[in-house]
Amino acid sequence: MSPAGGLPRAIERGTERSCSAIQIFNQSPRMWRAREYTEDDVLAFRQAMAASPIRAVLIHTVYLLNCASDDAEIRSKSLASLVHSLRAGDRIGARGVVLHAGSAKSGDVSSAIARCGETVREALARSERCSLHLENTAGAGGTLGRSVDELAQLLDAAGAGKRLGICLDSCHLFASGYDIRRPAGMDAALAQIGTKIGLERVRSLHLNDALVALGSNRDRHANIGHGELGERGCASFLSAPALQGLPCVLETPGVKRSGASREEVELAKHLHKRGLAARKRAKSASAARRGGARRGGASG
Questions:
Q1: Which end of the chain, N or C, is less packed with Cβ atoms under 10 Å?
Q2: pLDDT of residue 101
Q3: Domain for residue 223, yes or no?
């Protein structure tokens, strides 16, 4: 949601779209210049949120950041911008700041992960409370975080402190090779996360359909139900037991690039309920089959 016109406008726009969670940029997403909020800005935002159905706010860092860059100036600017976002998150009570860790470009990935880890450690040391959520990526252009293993390495390089978590993006998962279109595939991906990272590290979600094929390593979002995941795949993602209660944000293009509409938000809520109901039916059917097999064995 855009905060244009003042921070409370983001809350108003989210409420108009029937949201319970929103994401904002705390400055222009394609500019380094930081925006400072006054105490009046922060108070107005908190009051607007308290009076609304919005229960969680995420801040997304600007697109220019590359905490893994081998260019010292870019890393310095990335650090300053990340610190600014984390401090803004502290002030407005954000659930977390979502970060694309950066890109190795054509360089050595392990060195890029180490540089990113050092930058993130410093940013956390210069801020107080707000969580930092490293987002999984589709993997295009050497972007870091394309796999569970790489996310685990990034977290370790950044110190693996309590403020560190991950933001799981459905489109990026699919584009990086995780077939989450059915519950079994989604659960398998989460099992990897549980083993290598810890499910408690999953702190926020991005629900986006995928315009591209499985494993294509391209980051192309589609409107919900209009991509390769489809409604069933989105329901599979939303209904995973380990993800319940997390803030979930749509980053879909919308109609004429206008962003997610109220209708699409309502569709996501419907798919969430549909996915939960389908999982419940599958669990009941499985239990019935197991019961029948036991009875059959006893009578035999």
A1: C
A2: 95
A3: yes
